[in-house]
Structures are given as structure tokens and as C-alpha cells.
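Appendix B, example 12.
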Amino acid sequence: MKLTLETYSCNYETYNKWYFEDIADRIYKKHNSKNIGYDTKVIKLDGKNIQSQRSPSSIWSRSIFVYLDDKLTYIIALSNTNYDEDKLVECNKIGKKSTYGVHNYHANTYLVQGINKNFEIYHKYKQEHSNITLLFYMTDIEQSYPHNKFNLMCYRKLATIGFEILNIDKIDFYEFKEIKKGAILNKNNLHYTSLNEFINDSLVISRNNKGNIPSYMNTFDDYNSNGEKQTKYIYIFKALGAQTYDSFLTMWTIYELAKKENKNVEFLFIKEQYNFNDRKNIKTTKNLAGSIISLFKTLGIDIKYETSDEIRQELNRQKDQFNRAKKNNELRNQELFKNNMRARGIQTKCCLCGCEIENILEAAHIWGIAELKKADTKTIRSVISNKAMQDLIDITSEHKDDDFYKKYMIANSGDNGIWLCSNHHGLFDSHYFCFDSENGKIIINTQKLQENSSLMEFFNKITTNRQLPNEVMSEKTKIFLSKNQINIE
């Protein structure tokens, strides 16, 4: 088998020194062939220097073209690398100093930045070579950042949308164990199996980035043309700088998972300000990059993408919902309640058993609706006056002094909710157990459970976590837990 590796002139020195040999060896192994060496070719780009050859308008991408017996068989997309032999060679020729190999220089843009160009090149060549395959190759694996949670999740996204990483065996998934409770990931189970699992992992990654307001999923009750009720999912995302490329990969992943589960998903772009160094010229992101929108169309991916007021009106329909709720004296607004819980960035899985199956996963009120309805004005005012509750009531609302409004806001606060499977939710609402308002540990109603030994055995069997996660235990949640705790004490 004759093997030829080809790349662009602005990358050749770097790839030839650091990556060609390993890639060639892996290609031979993939075809169960003996490594007998390889030839190299260069695609010469226009431009007086390396930087101009890598300009955004250039056809350049981080790609290696693999020919087997002179037939284009693979395009290999490489992650960003800290090494730049091409600039080093160029600088040495003109006597200019060059530095490269800075540790963690590409930590946050390792894979995603520029990944759209890899897909553009792949699609372009696939028009003429229908049997080519796109593979990915991770560079600089001796550094720490290829193994961090953000990039590990990117590899899972690639697997979910159907792309293989050639050297995935060199990636350490240790950091993902704390997300998956010790589960071992490998090339055979790298892909996401459900939309809910993916969104949960996204929330964990977002929480680890302290300067980041996480993207999140909202749901709304909708009706199809036959009048049948269905759930609409709206993923709210951002697109500033490298976020654009990550959003591209995330939206594609969500699209594929939603299609598999027959879920109706739309995407909402959130504007962000930037350029704060120039206070007189602060800018705002206006749209998802045109190149990304165009790429979705090129790839045949039907992304329902909105920046218009149409979906914003849907997101802001809470006022109408409140008026109907007050008229009907109904505190419960399950749609608002769930979305407020999701906006907190809490994983959508049972706090006590880890169940992520949406059909049996429920949003449980901590301070129950029935008890809340019975609460007198003094009790409500006492709760609302707590310092932790200062942002719960909209002081500009015309209803701010209304007891029903206060109860409505408490009932549907994201801090008044925890995710439980239907089994745990039923037992919780029946006061078989509650949670300590200080540390979130389970408090068993021994009298009720001891009356039914089989139920106690069942509870112990299905309960793998005996304490609420730390991220659930906000100061508001502790107050609501104290109200629920009264039912057992």
C-alpha cells in the first residue's frame, strides 16, 4: 500500500516534524498493513509569508490529505498546536526571532477554533471523492489541556455527530470521571446517547468556568397542526469569539440527538457586549457568524435559528401566564418552574439516584404547593424579607405587594425545586423523607417507613445519593428546605 501525506505550505514544516510519522503509522494500522514509509506533498499557497498564507480569506485549514495508492481516502483535521516550525524556518531565513511552544497557549481554542474550515474543506472534496472519510487528530497530547473537561466534551460531540478521532487512545478521560461518577469512557462509548445527558454535561462544564453565564435549555408546551400537545426545546446560546465555533459544534450535536429522539428543537442567539478596553466603542455581537450559518446549509443541517422577537416573545410570556394563574388561583406553573430550574445550571437528573430518563424525571417543589397555599401573610412576609430572597420579587411589578404574587414567585422559583425520578418524587411529596436545611442530607420519616418494611427496603435500594449536591444548596433553597422539613419534624 502506497501512502502519501499532503498539506498546505504554511503547515508543512510543523506537520512534517511533529505529526506525519504518527499519523502514517496509525493509517497503516487502520488498514492492517505494515508501515513501509510514506511520501509527502505540498499544496503551495499564495502569500508572501506564512501569516498571509493563513489569512481568513485563504483556502488554508488545519488539514492533512491522505492518499492510499494515489487515491484520496482521508482528510485529517488537526487541532491547534503550540508548535510552529514554519514560522521558525521563515524567521531564521530573515534573521528574525521567533518563539513557539508556549504551554497552554491554545488551552481554550485547542479544537473548536477554526473547526468550521475543516468541515468546509471536507465537504468541498467530498463532492468529487464521495468515499473519503474525515478523521480528527489531537496534537500536543503531552500538554494538560487536551485532557481537560471542555475538550473531552468536544471529543464526545464529534463522536455523537459521527466523526472519529484517530488518536483517541492517547486521550486521558480521568477528569470526566467526576461528571460520570467513575464511568469509564473509551472510543466505543464516547458518543452521547440522549439529549438530556448532553445538556447535563454542558451544565457541568459551564459551572466550572466562573466567568461564564452558561448556555441552557428551556422547554415550552406547544401544539402541532393537529392540536396535539408537544414539547418545544429552545437552546439559548452565545457566539462571541471562540464561542462561535463551540456553539456550532454544540448546535450540531443537539440537532442530531433531537432528531434521533424526535424532539422539536430551536436555537436562540443571545447578544453579548465586548471591546470593553475602549469604553467609547463598546460593541455587541449581532448574529451567529455568516460562515457558520452557511456551513450548516452546506452540510444539509436544518437548524431552526432565531434572533427575532418571535421566540423572545415566547420566552417573555410570563406576564400572561401570571394573569391566568391569578384568575384561576393556581400557583403552579410547571413550564416556568422547570425553566427557572434549568436557568440555575442544575443538571437535569434525579438528585438521589442519578436517573436521566426524561420520561420518569420530574421537577419537585421543595416547599409544596398545598402547604404554600395555606401559608399566612406573616409567614410569606417573613420568608420574603430574608436577605437571600431580595431578588425573588420584582420591585417594579404592579403586583409586588400582592400575597398571591409572592406565593407564585416562591412556588416557581428555580431554588424551590429539585429534580427527582417519579419514585423519589412520590415518596418526597408523601413526606416519607425530607432534607436537612443546612447540609442537604436525607432525613428519614422513620415512623412512616418502618410501618412498611418492603417500602423501606425499596427506598434503600433505589437511593444511591443520600445528600443533595452542593450546587443545589443555595441560600434560598435552604430556606425552602426548612419549610418542607417541618412536615416531618
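The first strand starts at residue 3 and ends at 8. The two ends are 76 Å apart (CA to CA).
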